[in-house]
Every structure is written in C-alpha cells, then in structure tokens.
Recover the amino acids of this structure.
C-alpha cells in the first residue's frame, strides 16, 4: 500500500511473491514481529529463574485468605500487590531497554523537565513533596488501622456475621483508595536525562523504517532526512502531552502530534525535505502489529461472556446503525467518510479507522477528519465519564464496562477506569482488549461489502461477481500481523500459566512493545498533522454532518453499551461480576 496526497491507494493487481518485501503492509508485519521477537528473548527466555517461586508464594497467601474469609482481606490485597510487582524487567538488559525507550516525563511549569532533571533538582522536589506525603501517610495509617479493626471484628465472629463482613469490606475498600493516593504521593523522583536515549531511538527508527523504505523503492536518504523533522515534532507532542494540566484533561501526545503538525502545515507549510518521511500508514500499521501482543485470549476468558456481549454484540450493531443513519438520514455524500467515522467511533478509535479506511479506499482527508473527531471526543469522555459515573453512583464494574465499550483509545480507557478504582480499570481495559479483536473483522467485512456492493453499484455494474482474489487485494494485510501477534502472545500466555502477567503483560508488553507502539502512533499522528491542509478538510464539514454523525452514533453507543453491560453483568451473569 502507498499513500498519495489525496487517496489511500491499493494495488488491484494479482498478488505476487515480491509483495512480501515490496508492500507496506508486509513490512509493518516484519518489523512488528522482529521487535516482538527481540522482546520475547529479553523478557521471557532470559527471565529470572526465581519468578515462578515468588509468584507461587503470593498465590499461596491469596488462596489461603480466600478460604479464610468471604471477602478480600488486607493480607489478600497485600499479597496481590506484591505479586503485581514481580516481573521480568529487572535484568540488566531489560533495564537498559527501559532507559532506552523512556518517553518524555511529566512537568508542570518548565518543559525542559520533560527531558532533563538534575539530581539536585530531583532531591529538592522530593523534599518539597515530603510534607504532603507525610499528611497522606497519616490518612493511610488511619485507614489501615480502621480496616484492621473491622476485619478483626469480622474474624472474631468467624466471618459469620454479614453486617460485620460488609463493614470490614467497606473499610478495606476505603484503605485501598488511600493506598493509591499514598503510593503516588510517596513516589521518589530521580534525576533523569533522556536526550541520549532519544537520539538512539531516532537512529533505530530511521534504520528500521528506512530498511523497509529501501525495499519498497523509496529514496532512503531523503526518508532519513525527513524523519528528523517528523521525529522532532513527535518529541514535542510527547512533551506537551506530559504536561500536568494536559494529562488531567486527557489531551495526550496523539492530539498534540496532530495539532502541532497541522499548525506547521497550515502556517509556514510542511517543508519539502520532511515530506518523504510522512508515511502515516507505515508507522501506525507497525504499531498495530505490536498492539496485537496486548490482546490476550485468556484475558477475554477471564471476563467471560458478559464482556464478549458488551464488546462483540454492541459494537457491530452501533457500527451498522451509524452507517445507515449517515446514509439515509444525514445523506452523507461520501460513503467512505461515513463508514470510517462509524468504525472509528464504534470499534476502537484510530486503529479501526486506519484499517477501515484502507479497506474502503477512503481519502486521506477523510481519515484525518475521523481521527481528529475521535481524539477530541476521547479527551472529553475520558474526563466526563468517570465524573458522571461517580456522581450518579453507578457500580464500579458497570462503570468500567461502560468506559471500556465506549471510549476509543486503549490508553484513555485505562486512565478513565483508574479514576473509578482497580476493578473498573481491569474491566474497562479487558473489554477494550476484547473489542480490539474486531479491528480485523471490521476490515474484512468492509472490504467484502465495498467490493461486492458499494463500488459495483457506484460504477453501474451492480450484481457482478467478485472473486476471492479481489477481496484479498482489498483486505489490509497488516491485520494478519495484528491477529498473528495476538494468537502467538495468547499461546505463550497460556503456556506460561500464572507467571504470564510477570513475563508477558508486565514484562514484554509494558517494558518494550507498549512504548514502541506509543512511538509508532506518535509518528503516525505527526505525519497526519504535517500532511493535512485545512482547506482540504473544509468541504467535509459542510452542514456539520460528520460531527452530527459522530455525536449521534456515540450517543447511541453510550446508551446501548450501558444497557447491555447492566443486563449481562448484573442480571444474566451476576456470579461472574461477584468474582471480579
């Protein structure tokens, strides 16, 4: 696949063996799998040998506490927290990777703090925060004391008094909330300097992406020169997204990458020397292959049928209904824009938008518009939904399921769920993970529908037969990499058993694939911004139809997801909810 100034273009010719090293989709797969293979060696094959024993020790405590009390005790949570800290990121190689892939850090007043903090400055900041941490510690000690007293009262009654059990569970929950606050307040700031690592990441990115560009027939020197500009804007986007106020309101690096890129493109203009590196799809497809390693089937099974209903039943209903609404009610002139916005809003945001735009040959401007709408509403919903859920008293599990099924970005889902609590964050992230599986299904469905129905009708040849090869040519091949990474990671996770989280989710994913994915996405959104002209987008907003489509579709999504989550988690399968 290649991208021109106006269209996402697919080669309709017959598949060739040379496609494996000449096509963008395949290079996204190769690069993604190479990086995941390196991570597999570092975080799993070279993991510390004593991890299994450490995990088993905490499991033994948790199992004993589960038998002892009808609720999760203080000892249970303490063991659970200790288990979460066990991972394969402690080896020398893994620590080097953590240093290498460190993203610009948080800052409040001085943007340079995002890149460099001296040891003296870090020490001064820690001393300043110590007083606040001490006050939080007092709250923590009080909450822990109350939890211990209530738990002991329940234990003295042999956990046979329901009222005492409920009281103990409430006090323990209150202690957990304060524990989170104390953990943040007592975090020790260290001196940092990520400038050297940023230079190494730039070099690595230029080499890896440049290797593919060479085989795809592009000028590698021009790409490398342009990559300097794209990478620099991506760094600025990370910096702006890490500012404390921006983080609070959910305006992350993705939004800033587009904003900064558009400002450049629509003021001074994107320099010609940068344009060879504006390879939006190349970057994001590689990132989506890496994302596949985060979609684990055992996590899907853990949530069970309720989560599957929320993710796999509601999503296609919303997608189809929104598309029909856009065509029959709003009468949107562009069907490709209609389906791209519908998929973006209903499935999982920008990832689904890229796959869908590829499958239906949406114009670059249409993809940009869909992504822009998604980022704006994601930032709003990330803050507004947790506030609304708390205000009206929606249960934590239900709130998490609602967030997971409606907020577009995976990172925003986890952040919004964390506002509600651990259960909500777990449920929200897992349902979003289940929903991510539909990226491939959606792309395939759109490819089939567009080749057999939409394009034949538009070209006046309705009813013609379409062969499997034509559908294959239209299908986004990188989706196979996404699904392949998911299947392989799921098989590895299943084989690892109870140490899967320590080695895979909290090892390979958190230590390597997730930060690499963040870089790929930042480069992609930067390229979108640098390649977008406001004049090209203006006529798509005529009559406000795209905005109306997104708002109406998301409103329907919010209502249907909440209803389905309530029915599944609290009416049909309450026993599953009780175990979360």
């Amino acid at each position: 696949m290649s991208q021109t100034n106006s269209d996402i273009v697919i080669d309709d010719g017959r598949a060739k063996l040379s496609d494996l090293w000449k096509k963008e989709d395949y290079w996204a797969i190769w690069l993604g799998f190479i990086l995941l293979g390196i991570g597999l060696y570092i975080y799993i094959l070279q993991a510390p040998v004593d991890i299994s024993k450490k995990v088993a020790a905490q499991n033994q405590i948790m199992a004993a506490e589960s038998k002892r009390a009808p609720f999760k005790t203080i000892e249970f949570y303490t063991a659970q927290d200790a288990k979460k800290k066990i991972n394969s990121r402690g080896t020398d190689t893994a620590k080097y990777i953590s240093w290498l892939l460190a993203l610009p850090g948080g800052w409040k007043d001085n943007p340079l703090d995002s890149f460099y903090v001296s040891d003296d400055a870090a020490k001064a900041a820690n001393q300043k925060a110590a007083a606040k941490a001490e006050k939080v510690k007092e709250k923590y000690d009080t909450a822990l004391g109350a939890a211990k007293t209530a738990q002991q009262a329940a234990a003295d009654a042999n956990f046979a008094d329901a009222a005492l059990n409920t009281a103990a569970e409430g006090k323990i929950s209150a202690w957990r909330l304060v524990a989170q606050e104390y953990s943040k307040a007592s975090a020790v700031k260290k001196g940092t300097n990520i400038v050297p690592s940023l230079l190494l990441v730039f070099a690595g990115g230029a080499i890896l992406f440049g290797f593919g560009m060479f085989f795809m027939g592009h000028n590698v020197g021009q790409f490398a020169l342009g990559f300097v500009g794209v990478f620099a804007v991506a760094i600025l986007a990370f910096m702006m997204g890490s500012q404390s106020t921006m983080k609070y309101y959910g305006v992350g690096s993705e939004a800033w990458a587009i904003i900064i890129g558009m400002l450049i493109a629509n003021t001074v203009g994107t320099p010609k020397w940068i344009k060879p590196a504006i390879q939006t799809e190349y970057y994001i497809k590689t990132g989506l292959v890496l994302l596949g390693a985060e979609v684990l089937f055992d996590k899907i099974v853990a949530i069970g049928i309720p989560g599957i209903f929320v993710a796999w039943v509601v999503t296609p209903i919303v997608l189809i209904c929104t598309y029909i609404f856009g065509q029959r009610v709003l009468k949107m002139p562009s069907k490709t824009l209609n389906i791209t916005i519908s998929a973006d809003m209903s499935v999982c945001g920008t990832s689904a938008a890229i796959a869908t735009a590829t499958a239906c040959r949406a114009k670059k401007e249409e993809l940009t518009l869909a992504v822009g709408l998604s980022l704006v509403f994601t930032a709003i919903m990330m803050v507004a939904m947790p506030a609304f859920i708390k205000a009206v008293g929606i249960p934590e599990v239900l709130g998490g399921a609602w967030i997971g099924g409606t907020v577009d970005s995976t990172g925003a889902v986890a952040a919004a769920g964390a506002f509600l609590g651990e259960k909500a964050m777990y449920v929200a992230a897992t349902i979003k993970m289940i929903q991510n599986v539909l990226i491939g299904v959606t792309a395939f469905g759109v490819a089939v529908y567009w080749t057999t129905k939409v394009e034949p009708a538009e070209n006046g040849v309705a009813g013609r037969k379409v062969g499997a090869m034509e559908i294959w040519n239209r299908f986004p091949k990188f989706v196979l990499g996404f699904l392949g990474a998911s299947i392989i990671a799921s098989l590895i996770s299943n084989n690892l058993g109870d140490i899967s989280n320590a080695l895979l989710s909290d090892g390979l994913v958190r230590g390597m694939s997730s930060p690499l994915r963040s870089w790929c996405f930042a480069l992609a959104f930067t390229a979108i911004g640098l390649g977008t002209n406001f004049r090209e987008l203006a006529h798509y907003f005529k009559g406000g139809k795209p905005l109306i489509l997104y708002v109406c579709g998301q409103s329907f999504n919010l209502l249907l997801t909440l209803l389905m989550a309530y029915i599944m988690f609290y009416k049909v399968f309450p026993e599953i909810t009780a175990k979360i």
Observations:
- The mean pLDDT is 88.
- The first strand starts at residue 2 and ends at 3.
- The beta strands are 2-3, 8-9, 116-117, 192-193.
- The radius of gyration is 25 Å.
